[in-house]
Fold this protein.
Amino acid sequence: MSRWAYVNGRYVRHRDAAVHIEDRGYQLADGVYEVVGIRDGRLIDEAPHLDRLGRSLSELRIEWPVGRKALEFILREVLRLNGVRDGLVYIQATRGVARRDHAFPKDPTPALVVTAKHTSRPGIDVPGVRVVSRPDNRWDRCDIKTVGLLPNVLAKQSAREAGAWEAWFLDERGDVTEGASTNAWIVSEAGELITRQTDNGILAGITRATVKTICDSLQLKLVERPFSLAEAKRAREAFLSSATSFVTPIVGIDDTTVGDGKPGPVGRRLREEYLRHAGTGDRVT
Ligand code: PLP
């Protein structure tokens, strides 16, 4: 459990941390967020996460609540105060507090919350997870990491109720866009490593980008193109990627077993290399 949080300029006990009821994040989902993984006291891919935060803010015309250097300091302070060595740090920035009105307030002061949590140290060998397919009923700017996550929440809950870990969203053509909180990958029947191209239909995952670089260094050819649910069900392998789940093999899609029902060699290798990458960089706690 996190003991300390940062809320609008102050480090406060987690149990006392609160934002105003008129915060536009709470009222209107008028805000963005980032999640950065921590492994062995190191922030994983901090710079691209903060770059993406800057992009999300600018797409919504919200100012940075504090400068980037100040935010880097706050992240370290929250991690230090909570003694996190393996875990996650969450950054949430909203347009701030204003009298309720859909249109932007004049000269708002953006709000910033930073929290951290401990997670268990991930290993290379994992049993693999199951996913279920659900219609992609989100808006057409899924490239912005906003706090408006209701379709993702409902899809994830429906996956959990179906005994699966993740929901894969399907567009109107029957192609897999991404998971409720992860990007989607397959190794096709023909052995092609595929993940959907990035555009406004999915979030450009930072883990996805790192795995792409790993594929280059391993001379693994990656094709970025749409793939259908039917193609995924026939695939040799499937896996997902995110800051919270790293690279995690998928062993079942709906009622279909993927491959032989065990994590495949490509997903396993990419998980191993991703965890190796996560262990590089400067320790901050
Ligand atoms: N897609 C969605 C919808 C997400 O919410 C996330 C992460 O939260 C991802 C993909 C993976 O992104 P990242 O690798 O940056 O965590």
About this structure: The longest helix spans residues 68-82. Residues 35, 152, 178, 181-183, 203, 205-208, 241-243 surround pyridoxal-5'-phosphate (CB under 6 Å). The chain has a mean pLDDT of 97.
